[in-house]
What does this fold into?
Amino acid sequence: MNKTFTTILTASALTLSLAQAGSRPASEQARETFRDVEQNAHDIAVQADNLEMITRDSNRLAEGPMAGLDIVREKINNTGKELRVIDSERDSLPAWEQRTLDQVVPLLADAARNETQAIDYFNANRNHPATAEFRAYIEKIHEDGDKAAKVVSDHLKLAKAKDTESKIGQTLNEPAN
It folds into this structure.
């Protein structure tokens, strides 16, 4: 995990956890936070896609990709904060939320590493940043963001379907499987 990602996660986890604490069960809070994580992961992928287009267009490359990389960094760090809060409640979460964390955290950590490498590469090669190596970092960020968004989305859909099944089962006085 890159240093910035880890530091921000650790420093903000307690504050964010306390701010979000309330009368709602941890799982309900986690589900809401997972929706935010899904959106941030999607935003990371979209921003990386924009960066990929910039690196392929010499006219747009003059704009420089640093602003886009800064947005990616901010989204990754915000998502890391949210995941840290969920993880702090791990013991009270259902198994599906724990699995979601276990699948998403490595993807976003990988995106953070690639984002850092892309920034380092860009800073070292400002005159010729649009190389295959730079593009590979951006493509990996895009891929990880897409995968993370899909994992969270699929888990949220499954949880919603199970909730619906349970409610219908209760209405019919039948136990859910």
